[in-house]
Write a structure and sequence with these properties.
homodimer, alpha+beta, Arc Repressor Mutant, subunit A, Chorismate lyase, 6-stranded antiparallel beta sheet, DNA-binding
Chain lengths: ~240, ~240
DNA sequence: TAGTGGTCTAGACCACAAA
DNA sequence: TTGTGGTCTAGACCACTAA
């Protein structure tokens, strides 16, 4: 069982949040199951109650659990997939959709920042970016191409990792104490270029869902410029609207 | 100046939240203005710091303010267009984007409900639907094709109106007292059919953003099944994500 | 260096639900 | 009555920002 590291730079409440989050994702608790009580977690992990509550609060804000005074904390039923308002990893997304995720790293290198991302990432011309290109598979079939550009000064050496098996977000959190907490994105429908068509195993000019996303750390600092091209025949967004 | 009541049943943090919320709404602080610090509020209202932080947290969660370690708490700028979480009319959308809206009604008729919408609209086979097809223009150029299917029993005679100049939502609210308050939608990238290509003045198989949306009244009753096909070269969604 | 918000502790009392 | 989460206090130390 995972534990909490006192020496880590990652806040205790966040470590607990990750533990609980993972356990819910792994299905250790099913919808409507009651989670451990606050006092159980206080004892189990040797934390104060306020710290435990802070972790729970994150889960509540995400709609993953709900709390009832006098009763306990329970796993929510999965809502209509809400993959447009929340930042989730590719792996989580595939799991929610019942598909088997796969990743092939196509390239991983340091580059000079191209002009078109300078403003988005709030950096100067010539600054170095870590460029990571990954082909994503769902049930062993190509699904999408992801191109990440990271401000290398903020996470030096970030490319010395194996991103076929590790989440970039997790690496940023664990190794550099950078937590991506918000993002802005634009979604378009675009035709597949010849290169994309080959990689994704579709016809040239087939419709793709194209996402351009800027991700920010808690401080509001831009961390990543991400472009995703998703096969239009294999992927759809689901979202709920309010008045 | 409003104050906090210790005898009230309303939690102290919530009372403070309301005070700050109102003051922001009243424009006492403008975007980018710094709010009082935690310790100022602790003194001013005789609260503990944790209570003050709880009030701030609510404001942060709503996106009304943001906080920066070492600097302070500031009023947020009005957000990046949030056209994926809110139901807005075509008119409002065009206005926000600075484009001139236009509408051409292509067809308006009663039809038997096709099988593929029965479940979505929670109706029986053979039930009558009002079908309304509109071409939408932006700056006098074709932008999208919208096909609405309405449960006719809930709004009889709804098609006896001029939808070139009137909003369907407004008509439902004014004439039938039906307010659409929530919706679920799916967004895909699809190739333009020959018919759509002609209407939208694009090449066959050009990428389109396709939306399928079910809209619900306050009671949770499905009202409308809407399909929109938007030109990929002229339209993009913008949205913000959170952890 | 002074002042900000971020994290964390160790208590306390309360409201609510279930047995 | 017992155990749950909800509210609140009074501290402490840390990380970051700006002067």
């Amino acid at each position: 069982m995972k534990d909490i590291s006192r020496s880590s730079k990652i806040p205790l409440y966040y470590q607990l949040y990750e533990i609980l989050y993972d356990q819910i994702q792994e299905g250790i608790w099913q919808p409507e199951d009651m989670l451990p009580t606050e006092s159980e977690l206080v004892e189990r992990y040797n934390l104060s109650r306020a710290t435990v509550r802070q972790a729970f609060e994150m889960l509540v804000n995400q709609g993953l659990v709900y709390r009832r005074q006098g009763r306990g904390t329970f796993v929510s039923r999965p809502a209509f997939e809400q993959n447009l308002n929340r930042i989730i990893s590719f792996w989580e997304d595939m799991k929610q959709r019942g598909l088997k995720p796969g990743t092939i790293v196509l390239s991983s290198e340091l580059i000079q920042a191209p002009d078109d991302v300078l403003e988005s990432l709030e950096i100067e011309p010539g600054q170095e970016l870590a460029s990571l290109v990954r082909l994503r598979l769902a049930d062993d079939e190509p699904l999408s191409m992801e191109h990440s550009l990271l401000v290398h000064d903020l996470c030096p050496g970030v490319l010395d990792q194996d991103y076929a098996n590790n989440s970039l977000r997790k690496m940023l959190a664990d190794q550099y104490n950078i937590r991506i907490v918000s993002a802005k994105q634009t979604i378009r429908a675009v035709p597949a270029t010849k290169q994309l068509a080959e990689l994704l195993d579709i016809d040239v000019a087939s419709p793709l869902l194209h996402i351009a996303r800027i991700s920010y750390a808690e401080t509001g600092t831009p961390i990543e410029y991400l472009r995703i091209n998703l096969r239009g025949d294999r992927y759809a967004f689901h979202t709920e609207l309010r008045e």
